[in-house]
């Protein structure tokens, strides 16, 4: 599966207007691009008035656009939305898809024409993703605007977008993307079928075209369509709405639908209040993501302070996990998580105390097998150089500032993170957005369901907190609860070594990853890691592990390893990992009922013959991030907050299903166990 993206090839006229060479078409009217957007898309979808009438306490307002182009429609919509007299918690979700995205330089040039949009354009340009296939989640205006940008084929990406079959997802459609005669690959029957599948009842659409195939295609799937006067010199255009959201007779063709057993719960809390059990990376990231949406959060932590477990190392290395196939679910997940976490960590950075240093990371090819694997990754994924590139041993040495004997993968935007500070910074930002209560030194023994909420109780039966939503982010501690039955979570003990920086080691300019890792010096110390032990959870520091960390370093640079003293300080912690090395993010089904309802999965009955799972309403997990919590926990928190609030989910459906807790139960059932 080739998912390499190609950027738009542009020509520019004397007035600075871009022209798409691939499609021999303009991006916007020469009579006024901004005015065209206002007339064709905002006015025809009646958006200003609908925003004023929309109940944002129930769900956000969602627009889906079929051609991002220069971003003009998006930015114009941002400008109008943010200038409406709406409550502070009103959130606009904007989904947009682009097969031939503009380069950042071309995007900047195209948007320079409209000074009124400059504040929004600057933010977009600062967050513009590297051109990697798939969904990219970005936040503007303190989270009031959420952009979910899909890079790739519109029909393919829409087919992979999750929507509840009853609720739908989209309130208004911007059908853009060049004229049907010049871009027939987009204007397919499948596009109109996906529009119906994804639309809410009474969803509207508008488009600059009046082409018969568009009118007939939309009418055929149930939209009411009318012709209206076009913009400027264009005679006609189309607009309309979906009168109701009746269920289709059969699943939409070409849709990568979630099987029934992976469907999410249609649960909406009566009150925006969540109890989060565990206050490490995942717990504080979840609190931050929910607080941005106006949720009060109560964090319960068993330790005397936050981030004393696996989230508490002094420095951690931050880079994506890649394989040699786009079909590989972890590759898709971690690429999306990587770019999201980059922006997340940059936003946490403070001038006086930065916690993320994008110095670059070198992943060394220390064996012939790794050299072959890295070459296959680069060939298969064809990622832009901002994400990863191959470097020789000589180039790696120049980048690192020390002598290296191995070729490497170079991740120029990766780096090291002050891991122990991330949780505190996330908690601080959450407190700026909503009411956050933190209780440390408390041990949750069990939960009790009442009519209105979950009571969270200690061993003596005292209620520590109560809320309609409870989220487990407590790593291995989750295994003590009955909701974790038959979930293969494993405890992995890791030990990192802390060494005082010396004259030789201070030359290291970026993090190195091999069988272990080493970080650049920070405050006169360096971190060398790490052990990986499934046999014990002992917290005691082991001299043998320190020695093993040094020996791994010695294998890639013996001179550097010899400069460190034989006895150094260290830190051990137990991380929580799953059997398939992906985190668990989502709602918690009722195990006993699940195993009963899907007992005959091994016989291959079609998914349509099953009902969705029975869930413990209001119970969720965001855990088992293993050694990659810096990479996956922030994105997992954003994904979970989107799920809880019935927002667009920034991952394709096949990746979503691979993160659900019940994926392990499904595998058991299909094997007849």
UniProtKB/TrEMBL annotation:
Annotated region tRNA (mnm(5)s(2)U34)-methyltransferase: the residues are: 1-243
Q: Which domain of life is it from?
A: Bacteria
**Keyword tRNA processing tagged:** yes
Substrates-to-products reaction catalysed: 5-aminomethyl-2-thiouridine(34) in tRNA + S-adenosyl-L-methionine = 5-methylaminomethyl-2-thiouridine(34) in tRNA + S-adenosyl-L-homocysteine + H(+)
* The keyword Methyltransferase appears for this protein: yes
Return the protein name: tRNA 5-methylaminomethyl-2-thiouridine biosynthesis bifunctional protein MnmC
Give me the ranges of the annotated region FAD-dependent cmnm(5)s(2)U34 oxidoreductase: 277-673
Which residues belong to any copy of the MnmC-like methyltransferase domain? Answer: 119-241
Matching entries from Gene3D superfamilies are given as: D-Amino Acid Oxidase, subunit A, domain 2, FAD/NAD(P)-binding domain, Vaccinia Virus protein VP39
Q: Name one Pfam family in it.
A: Methyltransf_30
Could you give a GO molecular-function term held by this entry? flavin adenine dinucleotide binding
Location relative to the cell: Cytoplasm
- Ranges for domain FAD dependent oxidoreductase come to 274-643
Q: Which cofactor does it need?
A: FAD
List GO terms (cellular component aspect). cytoplasm
Q: A GO biological process this protein is involved in?
A: methylation
**Gene encoding this polypeptide?**
mnmC
Q: What does this protein do?
A: Catalyzes the last two steps in the biosynthesis of 5-methylaminomethyl-2-thiouridine (mnm(5)s(2)U) at the wobble position (U34) in tRNA. Catalyzes the FAD-dependent demodification of cmnm(5)s(2)U34 to nm(5)s(2)U34, followed by the transfer of a methyl group from S-adenosyl-L-methionine to nm(5)s(2)U34, to form mnm(5)s(2)U34.
Which InterPro entries does this entry report, sorted A to Z? FAD-dep_OxRdtase, FAD/NAD-bd_sf, MnmC-like_methylTransf, SAM-dependent_MTases_sf, tRNA_MAMT_biosynth_bifunc_MnmC, tRNA_MNMC2, tRNA_S-uridine_synth_MnmC_C
- Keyword vocabulary terms for this entry: Cytoplasm, FAD, Flavoprotein, Methyltransferase, Multifunctional enzyme, Oxidoreductase, S-adenosyl-L-methionine, Transferase, tRNA processing
Q: What is its EC number?
A: 2.1.1.61, 1.5.-.-
From the record, give the transmembrane residue ranges.
none
The UniProt entry lists the main location of this chain as cytoplasm
Identify the species of origin.
Answer: Beggiatoa alba B18LD
